[in-house]
């Protein structure tokens, strides 16, 4: 079976800085793949390129065999790629439940006119969205937070809401941008469990992460970036021993 | 969730109550200004949700109002009897799309039915809104404000400078608009009460649509866009399309208000397209609170009525300018917002402690 | 069109264009220092002319002009202190609305103080009917005054920002206010100076153009729109480009009057603004990435 995501020769520069340079890798179905690298390696830029928030200068991205290069972000989401953000972007003006319901937005069709005139089919749709959102909150164990304003939550809780919201898209691929940032050891371990649970739902996961214990623990494969280029790819054990990776993280004497 | 419609019922109750009060106290002449106030309120209903929900600044909404009004006025005062296609005119007259009439000198007139003109006015405004907004949507902040301001200015200059549209005098002798069942939109003492109810029913209808929208999937999407546009896009929401649709909706409300007010007052002038009118709409939304529908309606009713009755005198423009500055400095969420009350209470406490 | 007529149009275009350029530069100075677009910029021009006219009965022309410039500059600083200094991270929407409100208030105040009368300063040299012949066209000596004063202002501004300590401090503040404060620069002081400078150059431009274009309580607003158009055309914040764009707009307007009905003259500038905003909002002379909006 062909890989779910194929990144081919992706390039992006910002003025004089080449943020992503000729990056190529695949993500197979139901895999958990991690992208690691020192700060400034271009990991978040890579995510933004895949998710459509940023147009690439060159290269292409294939999702399920189709090219999604330079598709706008909302179209990429509609194709089945969900993402979370490094600095959590919840809708602070909505409740937790409403945030997750927005996540389920693309699974329904009622538009502005239908909304204004309360067309009959909107009732059933809204009920369906609401049920699904509640299910997702249950899945992540935050059902009790449903009616709280999303802006008033603790950090760990906000992360959970972001997850639930991303799952609302029924994605085939989930992009997680530094999901463990700001979490303590206990919470990170819980995060690992959640990620495994999500994979068990037949969702493929690509994550960017700095927390090595998490990465080594849950990833099937790892891609290492440095200064925008891929310097290594392979299973966690191989990466840990890879001389280039060690040099990039720890300096020359340790290679 | 019946509770959400309660304010609407209160509004309708007030509308009826005020009309009865004026009947009892013999001050029925207030109804004229109240009717005009209603049409101006219809404009801010659309603007309020546009600015509050989609975060789109529009400093040119008076332009949409004017396009609606002028189109209606022009099409219903255009005399087709002296045109070059009498047979076509006769055919349309039989369909009821063109109405015959006589002018003051007894000459034959054939003018478009106001209903047709109304639809044309709304359609034209919607079309212009689409053309204007598509390139402007990607703009942020200052750029968007100036683009809408520029749009309003162009409309103003065009209607002011075009002889066919009456230039500085505007268009007048706009005929009555009969909506059927004895309801006619026109000036004149005999029609005052009916027109008052027509106008405020339209405002209520607009409010109803907005209320429904806010509770729907599309409304949620709009709130999401307002909360965090990048995240909304990542959820699959085509933010540009939503913003465009909301803009067009608010433009349509403004155009409808413009068209009907023109029939009510029998005419329209270039000042309706002016910057000061646009500023006025924005000031009212600022006072009422952006995205605060009821606050905006109340603010519009009060401020427009006072202005139309002349209570601000020669300081009319200055008052709205001052309101704008004051609100934006001290109460950007609107006068009736929680944050404003909280801030006020905190300020009073601080003063009390000194 | 004869060459004399062409020269006539060109010169008149450059004249008014240079005023647009100064208004645009005023926009840019405040924008660079604060990220605010000051819609009241046009009112500074109007105030300059009006105040000078009011001072005329009491003092010679050059004193009246200096007085007007100083008073308007003080008004500029007052605006900053009263309205902007104490705002804590306001949204762009809020700032825009505030400056529009301020411009309305200034205009209404001018209406109350000076009425609807059109006023003008006397010609700086000669009078309404004197003319000088240049390249076959006849122009008023005031045109030379306008071009000269504006030219000197632009030159002095460039020198100020490039070579004086205060000018460099202001540029530092505009690039990165926090870092500038850490270096010991008084950011708030710099912003106040920016407002003062903007108001002063606007007032001077208003004085020097008053004899030819007359001043009225509402002559500020159309100037603000055109000044903003020019600033956007050149790229917000780029004053040299603004100068070029200003001259360009002035000439285009002057030439267009020979084709279009006069009533539509203002439509050109606004139309140009909309086209630029639609196609290339960062301006003709700036790269796309350099054109991201500043925060206040």
Counted by DSSP, the helix tally of chain B is 14
Spans of chain B with pLDDT under 50 lasting ≥5 residues? none
Biggest interface: chains and residue counts?
B-C, 43 and 39 residues
Q: Which percent band covers the strand fraction of chain B?
A: 5-15%
Structural class of chain B: mainly alpha
Number of strands of chain B: 6
Largest sheet of chain C, in brief, is: 2 strands, antiparallel
Structure description:
The complex is a heterotrimer of chains A (255), B (354) and C (296). By secondary structure, chain A is α/β, with parallel strands linked by helices. Chain A has helices spanning 43-51, 73-79, 96-103, 112-116, 120-139, 155-167, 185-200, 212-218, 236-241, 243-250; strands at residues 5-14, 17-27, 32-36, 58-63, 66-67, 81-83, 173-177, 204-208, 221-226, 229-234. In chain A, β9 and β10 form a beta hairpin. Chain B has 354 residues and is mostly helical. The longest helix of chain B has 27 residues, at 239-265. Chain B starts with 5 loop residues before the first helix and ends with a helix. In chain B, a hairpin with a 2-residue loop joins β4 (177-180) and β5. Chain B has one domain (6-353): Orthogonal Bundle (ABC transporter involved in vitamin B12 uptake, BtuC). By secondary structure, chain C is mainly α. Chain C has a single domain, classed as ABC transporter involved in vitamin B12 uptake, BtuC (Orthogonal Bundle), CATH 1.10.3470. In chain C, a hairpin with a 2-residue loop joins β1 (132-134) and β2 (137-139). Chain C is globular, with a radius of gyration of 19 Å.
Map the helices and strands.
The complex is a heterotrimer of chains A (255), B (354) and C (296).
Chain A: E1 5-14, E2 17-27, E3 32-36, H1 43-51, E4 58-63, E5 66-67, H2 73-79, E6 81-83, H3 96-103, H4 112-116, H5 120-139, H6 155-167, E7 173-177, H7 185-200, E8 204-208, H8 212-218, E9 221-226, E10 229-234, H9 236-241, H10 243-250
Parallel strand pairs in A: 3-8, 3-9, 6-7, 7-8
Antiparallel strand pairs in A: 1-2, 1-4, 4-5, 9-10
Chain B: H1 6-25, H2 30-53, H3 61-77, H4 86-95, E1 98-102, E2 108-112, H5 114-136, H6 141-161, E3 171-172, E4 177-180, E5 183-185, H7 192-214, H8 217-227, H9 229-234, H10 239-265, E6 267-268, H11 275-288, H12 293-308, H13 316-330, H14 338-353
Antiparallel strand pairs in B: 1-2, 3-6, 4-5
Helix pairs in contact in B: 1-7, 2-7, 2-10, 2-11, 2-12, 3-5, 3-6, 3-10, 5-10, 11-12, 11-13
Chain C: H1 3-34, H2 41-55, H3 61-84, H4 92-114, E1 132-134, E2 137-139, H5 141-163, H6 165-175, H7 177-182, H8 187-213, H9 220-234, H10 239-256, H11 265-279
Antiparallel strand pairs in C: 1-2
Helix pairs in contact in C: 1-5, 1-6, 1-8, 1-9, 1-10, 2-3, 2-4, 2-8, 2-9, 3-8, 5-6, 5-8, 6-8, 9-10, 9-11, 10-11
């Amino acid at each position: 079976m062909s890989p779910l995501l194929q990144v081919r020769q992706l390039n992006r520069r910002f003025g004089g800085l080449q943020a992503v340079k000729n990056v190529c890798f695949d993500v197979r179905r139901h895999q958990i793949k991690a992208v690691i690298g020192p700060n400034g390696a271009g990991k978040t830029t890579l995510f933004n390129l895949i998710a459509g928030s940023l147009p690439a200068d060159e290269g292409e991205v294939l999702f399920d065999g189709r090219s999604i290069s330079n598709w706008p972000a909302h179209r990429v989401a509609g194709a089945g790629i969900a993402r979370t953000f490094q600095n959590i972007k919840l809708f602070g003006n909505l409740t937790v439940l409403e945030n997750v319901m927005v996540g389920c937005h693309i699974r329904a069709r009622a538009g502005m006119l239908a909304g204004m005139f309360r067309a009959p089919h909107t009732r059933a749709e809204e009920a369906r969205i609401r049920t699904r959102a509640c299910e997702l909150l249950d899945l992540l164990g935050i059902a009790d937070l449903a009616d709280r304003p999303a802006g008033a939550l603790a950090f760990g809780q906000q992360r959970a809401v972001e997850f639930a919201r991303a799952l609302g898209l029924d994605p085939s691929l989930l992009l997680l941008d530094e999901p463990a940032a700001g979490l303590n050891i206990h919470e990170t371990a819980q995060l690992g469990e959640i990620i495994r649970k999500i994979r068990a739902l037949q969702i493929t996961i690509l994550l960017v992460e700095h927390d090595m214990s998490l990465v080594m623990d849950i990833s099937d494969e790892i891609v290492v970036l440095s200064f925008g280029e891929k310097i290594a790819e392979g299973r966690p054990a191989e990466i840990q021993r890879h001389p280039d990776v060690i040099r990039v993280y720890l300096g020359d004497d340790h290679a | 969730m019946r509770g959400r419609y309660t304010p609407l019922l209160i509004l309708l109750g007030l509308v009826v109550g005020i009309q009865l009060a004026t009947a009892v106290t013999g001050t029925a002449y207030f109804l004229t200004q109240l009717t005009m106030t209603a049409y101006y309120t219809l404009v801010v209903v659309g603007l309020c949700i546009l600015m509050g929900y989609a975060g789109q600044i529009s400093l040119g909404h008076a332009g949409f109002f004017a396009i609606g009004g002028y189109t209606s006025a022009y099409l219903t005062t255009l005399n087709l009897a002296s045109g070059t296609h009498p047979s076509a005119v006769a055919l349309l007259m039989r369909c009821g799309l063109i109405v015959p009439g006589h002018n003051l000198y007894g000459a034959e007139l054939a003018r478009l039915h106001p209903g047709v003109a109304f639809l044309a006015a709304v359609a034209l405004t919607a079309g212009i809104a689409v053309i204007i907004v598509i390139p402007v949507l990607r703009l942020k902040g200052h750029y968007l404000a100036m683009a809408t301001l520029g749009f309003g200015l162009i409309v103003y200059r065009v209607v002011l400078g075009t002889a066919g549209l009456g230039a500085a005098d505007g268009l007048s002798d706009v005929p009555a608009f009969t909506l059927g069942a004895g309801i006619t939109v026109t000036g004149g003492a005999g029609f005052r009460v009916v027109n008052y109810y027509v106008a405020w029913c339209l405002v209520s209808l607009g409010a109803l649509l907005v209320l429904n929208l806010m509770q729907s999937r599309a409304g949620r999407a709009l709130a999401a866009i307002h909360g965090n546009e990048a995240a909304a896009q990542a959820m699959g929401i085509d933010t540009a399309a939503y913003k465009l649709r909301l803009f067009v909706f608010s433009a349509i409300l403004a155009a409808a208000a413009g068209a009907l007010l023109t029939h009510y007052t029998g005419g329209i002038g270039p000042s309706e397209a002016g910057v000061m009118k646009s500023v006025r709409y924005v000031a009212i939304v600022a006072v009422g609170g952006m995205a605060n529908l009821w606050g905006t309606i109340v603010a519009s009713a009060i401020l427009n009525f006072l202005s139309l009755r002349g209570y601000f005198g020669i300081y009319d423009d200055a008052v709205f300018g001052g309101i704008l500055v004051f609100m934006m400095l001290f109460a950007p969420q609107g006068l009736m917002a929680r944050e404003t009350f909280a801030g006020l209470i905190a300020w009073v406490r601080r003063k009390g402690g000194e | 069109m004869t060459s004399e007529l062409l020269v006539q149009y060109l010169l008149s275009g450059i004249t008014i264009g240079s005023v647009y350029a100064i208004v645009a530069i005023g926009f840019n100075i405040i924008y660079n220092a604060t990220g605010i677009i000051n819609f009241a910029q046009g009112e500074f021009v109007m105030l300059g002319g009006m105040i000078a006219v009011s001072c005329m009965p009491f003092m010679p022309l050059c004193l009246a002009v200096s007085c007007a410039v100083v008073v308007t500059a003080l008004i500029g600083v007052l605006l900053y202190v009263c309205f902007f200094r104490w705002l804590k991270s306001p949204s762009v929407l809020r700032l825009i609305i505030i400056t529009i409100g301020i411009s309305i208030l200034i205009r209404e105040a001018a209406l109350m103080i000076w009425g609807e009368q059109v006023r003008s300063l006397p010609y700086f040299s000669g009078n309404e009917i004197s003319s000088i012949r240049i390249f076959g066209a006849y122009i008023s000596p005031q045109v030379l005054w306008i071009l000269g004063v504006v030219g000197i202002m632009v030159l002095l501004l460039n020198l100020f920002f490039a070579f004086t300590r205060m000018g460099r401090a202001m540029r530092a503040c505009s690039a990165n206010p926090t870092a500038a404060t850490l270096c010991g620069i008084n950011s708030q002081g710099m912003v106040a100076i920016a407002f003062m400078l903007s108001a002063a150059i606007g007032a001077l431009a208003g004085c020097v153009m008053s004899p030819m274009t007359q001043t009225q309580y509402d002559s500020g607003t159309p100037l603000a729109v055109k000044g903003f158009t020019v600033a956007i055309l050149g790229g917000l914040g780029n004053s040299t480009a603004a100068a070029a764009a200003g001259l360009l707009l002035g000439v285009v307007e002057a030439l267009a009057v020979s084709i279009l009905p006069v009533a539509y003259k203002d439509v050109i500038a606004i139309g140009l603004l909309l086209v630029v905003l639609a196609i290339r909002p960062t301006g003709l002379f700036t790269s796309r990435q350099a054109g991201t909006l500043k925060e206040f």
